[in-house]
Amino acid sequence: MAFAPARSMPKCSAAYTGDVAGSDALEGLVRFYHRRLVAPAYALCENRSDAEDIVADAYVRTWPRLVRGQVYDPAAYLRRAVVNDTASWRRHRFVVRREELRRRVNPAPDIAEDQVAGQDEL
After folding, report:
1. Taking residues 69-81, what's their average pLDDT?
2. DSSP code of 10?
3. In whole angstroms, what is the distance from residue 80 CA to residue 35 CA?
4. Across the chain, which distance is largest between two alpha carbons, in Å?
5. What is the pLDDT of residues 51-71, one digit of tens each?
6. Is 67 within 8 Å of 16 (Cβ atoms)?
């Protein structure tokens, strides 16, 4: 499927070869969509720095498909990538926080065994 830019989005359909034209296309893409992508990421993760990181990762992951012309609507494709990455970030953050809480509430098994052994001696 040929690349069809949404609205007046800068064209990036030429294969990326690492030249200046490829980096100019990426710069134009970022300039055009960045604010539109950071807003929903920020709304979902409530942290500006994390939202910026999520959007940057989405650019990196989607750029190869964009330059090969495999994306019909870059705005929708990037937005979906950002929402998916934000959902993954939230799941990961939940698991990390749950594990930290579990470790605070339940001491490590070695400590608990030492405490029980000490109580038996009393």
Report:
1. 89
2. P
3. 15
4. 79
5. 999 999 999 898 888 888 888
6. yes
- Identify the burial level of 79 via C-beta atoms within 10 angstroms of its C-beta, where 0-12 means exposed, 13-18 middle and 19 or more buried: middle
> Is residue 24 within 8 Å of 18, Cβ to Cβ?
no
Residues 19 and 122: their CA atoms lie apart, in Å, by 76
Contact between residue 74 and residue 29 where contact means Cβ atoms under 8 Å apart: yes
**Is-contact 64 16, C-beta < 8 A?**
yes
Contacts of 19-26 spanning 24+ positions with Cβ under 8 A: 22/67, 25/67, 26/59, 26/63
What pLDDT shows up at residue 73?
A: 87
Q: Residue count of the chain, please give it.
A: 122
pLDDT higher for 73 or 8?
73
Q: Of 25-34, 39-48, 60-69, 109-118, give the lowest mean pLDDT range.
A: 109-118
pLDDT at residue 49 in the model: 93
d(CA 1, CA 76): 16
- Name the DSSP letter for residue 7: T
